[in-house]
């Protein structure tokens, strides 16, 4: 299946409705991606105003989720879609939940950034935050790009990247825990950074979830809780 498969219905109105859902989903994803980037910048640049803006914008993401949900319900009621169209609706419905939760994690990062602006910067953890933050932002971008192009192979690459995020998160957490035990004076500030890293790790999980839904939409294969080896076989058609 590819993007063009969604444009061949007898009803042009149905085509327009499906395309509108895709457009709104990608617009929501674009705002979520920006929120994550801005939250990270607010932390690294000690920009309290930017942190507040990220927190305020979270309501926009919530509203976008609600509107897309409403449109999906209308399509289900009016069109009773089957096969690939139904998979698309299911995948988008689940994916907007993950996008909304990524937005929530971005707002949390912004709150920790604001706290660190007020309390004073943490002596450790910003290098790890910058590195893991760049990785998860790239995951979001590549997931949305894969969705726009109906690219299951790229979605699978995003899934695999989540494993690297998990490893780096655990390594950074151990290092910061050790630092806090050695110098308790900065426990509160370092804890805030640890929570930021936890938010970034969860963002990676949500990007993986969206990629799983894209593979389901394109290939019709449920790859949740499935090993990479089995997924590769499904994508190549050998399973």
TrEMBL record:
Protein name (record): Phosphate-specific transport system accessory protein PhoU
Domain PhoU per the UniProt entry, residue ranges: 27-112, 130-213
GO cellular component entries: cytoplasm
Keywords: Cytoplasm, Phosphate transport, Transport
NCBIfam families registered for this protein in UniProt: phoU_full
Subunit structure: Homodimer.
GO biological process, one term: phosphate ion transport
Compartment(s) of residence: Cytoplasm
Lineage summary: Bacteria, Pseudomonadati, Pseudomonadota, Gammaproteobacteria, Moraxellales
Role noted for this protein: Plays a role in the regulation of phosphate uptake.
Transport listed as a keyword: yes
Family: Belongs to the PhoU family.
Primary location class: cytoplasm
Alphabetical list of InterPro entries matching this protein: PhoU, PhoU-like_sf, PhoU_dom
């Amino acid at each position: 299946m590819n993007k063009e498969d969604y444009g061949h219905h007898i009803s042009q109105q149905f085509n327009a409705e499906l395309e509108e859902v895709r457009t709104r989903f990608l617009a929501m994803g674009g705002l979520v991606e920006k929120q994550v980037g801005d939250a990270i910048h607010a932390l690294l640049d000690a920009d309290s105003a930017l942190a507040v803006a990220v927190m305020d914008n979270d309501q926009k993401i919530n509203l976008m989720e609600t509107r897309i949900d409403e449109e999906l319900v209308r399509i289900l009621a009016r069109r009773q879609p089957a096969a690939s169209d139904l998979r698309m609706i299911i995948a988008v419905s689940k994916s907007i939940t993950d996008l909304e939760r990524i937005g929530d994690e971005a707002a949390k990062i912004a709150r920790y950034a604001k706290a660190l602006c007020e309390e004073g910067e943490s002596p450790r953890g910003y290098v790890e935050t910058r590195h893991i933050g760049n990785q998860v932002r790239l995951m979001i971008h590549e997931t949305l790009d894969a969705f726009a192009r109906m690219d299951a192979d790229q979605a699978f690459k995003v899934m695999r990247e989540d494993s690297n995020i998990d490893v780096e998160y655990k390594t950074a957490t151990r290092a910061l825990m050790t630092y806090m035990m050695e110098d308790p004076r900065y426990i509160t500030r370092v804890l805030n950074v640890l929570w930021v890293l936890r938010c970034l790790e969860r963002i990676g999980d949500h990007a993986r979830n969206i990629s799983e839904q894209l593979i389901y939409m394109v290939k019709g294969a449920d790859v949740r809780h499935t090993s990479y080896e089995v997924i590769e076989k499904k994508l190549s058609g050998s399973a």
